[in-house]
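Running low. Any example?
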Amino acid sequence: KQQIVFTEPCCTLDINGQEQERLVQMFKALGNPTRFEIIKFLVTHPQCITGDIVDYLPIAQATVSQHVKVLKEAGWIAGITQGPATNYCLNNDNIAWFKSKVGEIF
């Protein structure tokens, strides 16, 4: 029988309060398979409009809009309004922040 031995951590993790809340919100948003597909689509199709995402995914426009809203609120994407359409792209500053925090954890 193998015994598990726990050791003291080599360092402390200083993510709490608003940073932790922000990080959890980003993880939650990305945890949905449809939203993950939207992020993957935006990697290769920057500055696309909602209709482009609707054409890519087998779901209704209203459902796409709801998922896009969650991704925007979590900081994954940004939208730039140009006339009647909004162009969506990844929010590179927030993604860089997310990557740095995940790097601190792992």
Notes: The chain has a mean pLDDT of 91. The beta strands are 48-49, 77-82, 85-90. The CA atoms of residues 23 and 50 lie 25 Å apart. The first strand starts at residue 48 and ends at 49.
